């Protein structure tokens, strides 16, 4: 049996996994799986406005009002939902500040801060894709 074949239960696995793209078993799947690290990362940043809220929090802690001011087209309802989701995902922490009236600010957790390179890479890739879509070959007209 060649190096590329391994017995997996009653089946033989013949797929060559790219060790950079799939460094461990969790990503070795043939369909979207909840435990796949890529699926988890994509789900963490999914949702309209989510990446923009994360981008603003990358600059440092923000109050709800700060975020509304920086993203004026984002409704209070959707901002509340996104902050709640990001908090539930462990990417954002909600801090109550001492004093009266009660003030709250939102801050990225260490896990949330780790999304920065991903967001930068997504932006760069999106720029390349937009540029590629803008160039229409003469045959396609």
TrEMBL record:
Keyword Nucleus: no
Pfam families hit by this protein: HxlR (PF01638)
Recorded superkingdom: Bacteria
UniProt cross-references to SUPFAM superfamilies, sorted A to Z: Winged helix' DNA-binding domain (SSF46785)
HTH hxlR-type domain residues: 36-134
Record carries keyword DNA-binding: yes
Alphabetized UniProt keyword annotations: DNA-binding, Transcription, Transcription regulation
InterPro entries, A to Z: ArsR-like_HTH (IPR011991), HTH_HxlR (IPR002577), WH-like_DNA-bd_sf (IPR036388), WH_DNA-bd_sf (IPR036390)
Chain intervals for the UniProt region annotation (Disordered): 1-32
Name recorded for this polypeptide: Transcriptional regulator, HxlR family
């Amino acid at each position: 049996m060649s190096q590329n074949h391994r017995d997996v239960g009653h089946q033989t696995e013949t797929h060559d996994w790219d060790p950079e793209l799939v460094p461990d078993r969790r990503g070795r799947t043939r369909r979207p799986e909840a435990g796949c690290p890529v699926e988890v990362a994509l789900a963490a940043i999914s949702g309209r406005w989510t990446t923009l809220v994360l981008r603003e929090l990358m600059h440092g802690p923000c109050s709800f009002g700060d975020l509304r001011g920086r993203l004026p087209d984002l409704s209070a309802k959707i901002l509340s939902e996104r902050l709640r989701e990001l908090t539930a995902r462990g990417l954002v922490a909600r801090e109550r500040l001492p004093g009266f009236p009660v003030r709250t600010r939102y801050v990225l957790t260490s896990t949330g801060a780790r999304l920065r390179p991903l967001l930068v890479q997504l932006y760069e890739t999106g720029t390349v894709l937009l540029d590629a879509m803008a160039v229409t070959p003469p045959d396609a007209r």
